[in-house]
Amino acid sequence: MSQKKVRKALIPAAGFGTRLFPATKIVKKELFPIIDRDGRAKPIIMAIVEEAINAGIEEVGIVVQPEDRELFTDLFKAPPKPELFKKLSPENQKYSQYLQDLGKQITILIQTEQEGYGHAVYCAKDWVDQESFLLLLGDHVYTTNTERSCAKQMLDVYQQFEQNIIGLTIMSAEIIHKAGCVTGVWQQPNSLLKITEIYEKPSLEYARQNLKVNGMKKDEFLGVFGMYILESKIFDLLEEDINHNYRFKGEFQLTTCLDKLRQEQATLGYLVQGQYFDTGMPLFYRQTMIDFYQNSKN
């Protein structure tokens, strides 16, 4: 097994949260509360950071809008006001210190203009600095019933193959138009896929004609799980799109560059043993509040 290690994780959190308006007029969607497996009410972004850190990641970069820097800095790096700290239980006072210790591993990065998910990733180019990195969505949380967390599974696969890894999940025909979708050839049945196409939010007709994978049931497809491990080559491709103003639906997208990446570098899809919860839409967020804690306990 390779000794090459992924040290950094990136979490873009600079979107407007339009699908959760008007709540996001007041609270950033990444700061919405969930009940985690430890029974604590915590902001979504904290659960994502912990997913990365607990898997062995050493540094986490969070991309935010300029006016939100203080919010995220306060969450991870500032102690509570003295009058609040005094009212905390001894256990929560200890947890407050844990938060500040966690903050030492976090760097706040800025996206000055909101030009799409790919653009947000590109804003971390200098911070990533030629390393491979774990990329996590800022509105997804993850659970698994296995001994290894979802992020740890991804890191282990990368350590074995040293290729770009895209986390995958099985998606039904009803939701495929809301996600990235891939096709390819199984290298290990129901586990590892050599990716031959990546497509952003396909129509069902397009998916049926072009994105079917051998051995899968009718109208089941492989969608993006919301986790990636990428080589730094992705920044060159994003930069090319930005410099030439190549947009998809008005924004600089990651998925179109991922498809270019897999044409230049070997890219594997890994069918993650776990479940993601998308908190970026009202009814999905509601379901997360119901199911996430219970699934985490099982």
TrEMBL record:
Reactions this protein catalyses: alpha-D-glucose 1-phosphate + UTP + H(+) = UDP-alpha-D-glucose + diphosphate
GO biological process: UDP-alpha-D-glucose metabolic process
Domain Nucleotidyl transferase: 8-282
Stated name of the protein: UTP--glucose-1-phosphate uridylyltransferase
Alphabetized InterPro entries for the sequence: GalU_uridylyltTrfase_bac/arc, NTP_transferase_dom, Nucleotide-diphossugar_trans
GO molecular function, one term: UTP:glucose-1-phosphate uridylyltransferase activity
Catalytic activity, EC: 2.7.7.9
The organism's taxonomic lineage, starting at the top: Bacteria, Bacillati, Cyanobacteriota, Cyanophyceae, Pleurocapsales
Broad class of enzyme this protein falls into: transferase
Keyword Nucleotidyltransferase annotated: yes
Family, similarity comment: Belongs to the UDPGP type 2 family.
UniProt keyword list: Nucleotidyltransferase, Transferase
Domain of life: Bacteria
